[in-house]
């Protein structure tokens, strides 16, 4: 298992790798902010590399939802915003939410403790290792072989809800108020997810409490990603292309960072320009299955920047592991036959975290095989 670590240097964080004995440490360790040569384990095959033209093209107009208009807008504002939400779910799978009601000082606090964690000495962060086959702790997730290409990213992830998924020894003692801030922030984001799913249910002509009742005690996790500057952003990926296994994912992008998030839209990689104080929301595999493909999860990735770093804080929200999931009966008919099988969500989650990030490949787990004509 290879883990990527961050250390504090003048002006920026940098990236190092803690390596298994069989990997050549000299070729894989990043000693400086902008090494002259990118270690081979980070250099992507030609077909995977982001071109500079792709990375620098003007951002596209991903839908923006004004949450306050859904909650307390007049009739016309509410109707307009619901149409925008429907379009976002059907055509994009991604949207940004403004005026979400979460105190902006809390967004600043979570960003501060995340950055403060990543600048801790390496030996301090190594107290919370992400073990092979898990996605909690500090390191790199989804690495399963010695020759697998690595993402130009440091990660720290924690399970939050229900409490039995928490690993207390992975909750850091430093920085001060880290755990307290994560608790408060996660509680607010959880409420936002619940409310968003109420409105998404209404776009599907379902009861507002449909998903809340179906999900049971929803599973929630948080992951903090730090992307150091990279001398050759055209050779590496910050995060490999993938769709999320969640129902909803909530992304907070650190202020002042590079534009790193890209989504696959019409077979082209499109950068998403952060809107100040907004959350980026995306549909996960679970919601694609439940809606029988009406609302699809979307492949996305992160790219790096030559001069700027990037911090992101990601919340994953999903049904209880005990739930049996499949297409909602109301969304299956002669014109929309069942596209996915019924499966246990815990089984799918285990499949997801033990598979490498590779586009939407993990969703094949749930697909019903098409019947070939005789």
Automatic annotation (TrEMBL):
One of its GO terms (molecular function) is L-ascorbic acid binding. Transmembrane segments: none annotated. It comes from Populus trichocarpa. SUPFAM superfamilies: Clavaminate synthase-like. The keyword Nucleotide-binding does not apply. This is Fe2OG dioxygenase domain-containing protein. Coiled coil: none annotated. InterPro entries: DIOX_N, IPNS-like_FE2OG_OXY, IPNS-like_sf, Oxoglu/Fe-dep_dioxygenase_dom, Plant_2OG-oxidoreductases. Keywords: Iron, Metal-binding, Oxidoreductase, Vitamin C. PROSITE patterns: FE2OG_OXY. Residues 217-319 form the Fe2OG dioxygenase domain. Belongs to the iron/ascorbate-dependent oxidoreductase family.
């Amino acid at each position: 298992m290879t883990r990527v670590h961050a250390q504090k240097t003048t002006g920026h964080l940098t990236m190092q790798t803690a390596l298994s004995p069989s990997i050549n440490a000299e070729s894989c360790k990043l000693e400086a902010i902008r090494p002259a040569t990118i270690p081979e384990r980070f250099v992507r095959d030609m077909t995977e590399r982001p071109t500079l033209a792709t990375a620098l093209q003007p951002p596209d107009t991903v839908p923006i939802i004004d949450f306050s208009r859904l909650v307390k807008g007049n009739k016309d504002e509410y109707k307009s915003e619901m149409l925008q939400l429907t379009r976002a779910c059907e055509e994009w799978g991604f949207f940004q939410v403004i005026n979400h009601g979460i105190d902006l000082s809390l967004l600043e606090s979570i960003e501060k403790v995340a950055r403060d964690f990543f600048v801790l000495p390496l030996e301090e962060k190594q107290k919370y290792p992400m073990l092979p086959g898990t996605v909690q702790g500090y390191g790199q997730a989804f690495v399963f072989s010695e020759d697998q290409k690595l993402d130009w990213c440091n990660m720290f992830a924690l399970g939050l809800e229900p409490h039995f998924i928490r690993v207390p020894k992975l909750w850091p003692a430093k920085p001060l108020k880290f755990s307290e801030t994560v608790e408060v922030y996660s509680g607010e984001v959880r409420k936002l997810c619940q409310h968003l799913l109420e409105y998404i249910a209404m776009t599907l002509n379902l009861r507002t409490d449909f998903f809340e009742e179906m999900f049971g005690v929803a599973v929630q996790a948080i992951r903090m990603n730090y992307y150091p500057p990279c001398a050759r952003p055209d050779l590496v990926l910050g995060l490999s292309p993938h769709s999320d296994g969640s129902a909803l994912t909530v992304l907070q992008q650190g202020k002042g960072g590079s534009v790193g998030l890209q989504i696959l839209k019409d077979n082209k990689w499109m950068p998403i320009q952060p809107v100040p104080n907004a959350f980026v929301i995306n549909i996960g595999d679970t919601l694609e299955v439940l809606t029988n493909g009406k609302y699809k999860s979307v492949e996305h990735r992160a790219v790096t920047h030559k001069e700027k770093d990037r911090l992101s804080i990601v919340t994953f929200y999903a049904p209880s592991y005990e739930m049996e999931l499949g297409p909602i009966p109301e969304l299956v008919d002669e014109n929309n036959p069942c596209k996915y099988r019924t499966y246990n969500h815990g089984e799918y989650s285990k499949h997801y975290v033990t598979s490498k990030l590779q586009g939407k490949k993990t969703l094949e787990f749930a697909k019903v095989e098409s019947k070939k004509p005789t």
